[in-house]
Write the structure tokens for this entry.
Amino acid sequence: MAILVLSNPLPSAPFAEALRRAAPDVTIWTEADAPDPGLVEAILAWRMKAGILPKYPNLRVLCSTGAGVDKLLVEDLPASVPVTRVVDPAQGVEIAQYVVAQALAFTRDLALYARQQADAQWKRHPVRLASQCRVGVMGLGAVGQAIARAFAPLGYPVAGWSRSAKSLPGIQCHAGLDGLAKFLSHTDILVCALPLTPETRGLLNRGTLGQLPRGAFVVNVGRGEQLVEPDLQMLLDEGHLAGAALDVFDREPPPPDNWVWRHPKVSATPHIAAQASFDVVAAQCVDAWRSARAGDAPALAVDRAAGY
Ligand code: NDP
Ligand code: OXD
């Protein structure tokens, strides 16, 4: 029995070391160890290609190195193999810090003042009141709720949107496609913290982003494939949107000639909003493997049909 780390493009050593700490009695392999496929019972991976999983006939569970599992749901994933995600509360706090930092930089005009400083220009602009900047968080799971909670003490009115109806203290909750238009039209700072699924792919497009009030700001920490980049560019250039902070892209890294690198209204970061700790990832992978061995559903198994 063994756990195999296939974390490419992330380095495998930190995951393998954390797994050894979490389960000293278990064989932990990386690709470099020339693993015996028949002994592999769990795989810890960030992404998967078709043709790999059938090589492991005794696979019991496929674990994600991150919160999202979208790159693991390949067509030859055996029906009997559960897929697990990571839930790390510290990661939620970290991602909330990133989003709050971007939102504050936007509402307090920090980029504008940095440009003014470069020209030794002393010029004051009216301050946008937090109470008049409505934050709308798409996705109210582990990550989205952490983001929503972080804004409330700063005085921002907070709303959220999810697939199923919710009631969360201090958050105006909307749900489903029926609730989307009202949610969008009442949102000045839109934060996407959705998992990538067939329903959320391309969801941030001209039609939906165009329903935001003029001057709105968009933060995407979900997945790049949820955003139709040319639509965003058009809305920024037309002035409908005031800015965007993008941490995720459909191609990571985006090619050097991608407009996002240079657009004056875009802040682009290399998928750093938050990373789960290696020890949490490893502990949850080992738990999932032990549950699968015992014939139980792992606690963090995703709904494969829903895609998250
Ligand atoms: P969860 O599974 O805990 O939550 C997902 C949320 O999205 C749920 O509230 C769910 O609704 C909602 N949702 C899913 N599909 C739809 C839909 N079609 N319409 C409306 N709402 C929908 O995931 P996490 O919060 O843990 O993570 C979310 C995503 O954040 C990850 O999949 C990943 O893509 C991204 N992420 C990015 C990071 C970064 O560094 N940039 C770091 C970590 C995560 P419901 O509650 O009704 O099920
Ligand atoms: C993710 C992660 O899913 O980094 O993006 O956990």
